[in-house]
Design a protein that fits this description.
single chain, alpha+beta, 2 domains, four-stranded mixed beta sheet, 10 helices, globular
């Protein structure tokens, strides 16, 4: 169902800008800013993700700098802030799972996953970015705009790729192919 600014796909509300706005990361320009933004809050985690990461942490550590390993050893990789489970960051900046390829911040969990060393990917909140999930009687998907992603918007316009298309893999991971097909059908009808 399509309303003014939202699509309703099963019990998931999708804000219109997810299907209308363009976006494709350009790491050469942003340098992985979403993983290194200054904040006292890290990336949201699900309880089951914490359990998965704990199992693969020895492998993921292979990609991390001594500074990030030390932070994890001293404080752990996650924290509970006001009832929210979040990744820790180093000095309220880089996620503890950041490693660098040149000047670009990347995720060690994702790297280990893509290298075939572990079976779980990075947290879904990171995989979905720039989509954020809020809960209110079901999931609400919204576009989180940050200034550091200006080049990603321009890149998306140039390549004619919407946020929904850019995040297809993560949306499939979270909701499955049937849900994603319903999203595609609903957006064609709008």
């Amino acid at each position: 169902m399509y309303l003014d600014n939202v699509l309703q796909i099963d019990d998931v509300t999708v804000r219109k800008d997810i299907i209308d706005s363009h976006f494709v990361c350009d790491l050469t320009k942003c340098k992985g800013a979403c993983c290194t933004m200054e904040s006292e809050y890290g990336a949201p985690l699900k309880k089951e993700e914490i359990e998965e990461i704990e199992k693969v942490l020895p492998i993921v550590r292979e990609y991390l700098s001594p500074k990030h390993i030390k932070e994890i050893e001293a404080k752990g990789f996650w924290e509970d802030k006001e009832g929210e489970l979040l990744t820790r960051s180093v000095n309220n900046r880089a996620c503890v799972f950041v490693y660098y390829e040149g000047e670009v911040a990347k995720c060690a969990i994702e790297k280990a996953y893509k290298d075939g060393k572990i079976s779980c990917n990075k947290p879904i909140s990171c995989h979905l970015f720039p989509i954020r999930v809020s809960r209110f009687g079901g999931d609400i998907l919204r576009y989180e705009r940050i200034p550091e992603c200006h080049d990603a918007v321009e890149n998306g316009v140039k390549l004619k790729v919407t946020i929904a298309d850019f995040c297809k893999e993560s949306l499939l991971r979270l909701y499955g192919p049937s849900w994603f097909e319903k999203l595609q059908v609903a957006r064609r009808r709008k």
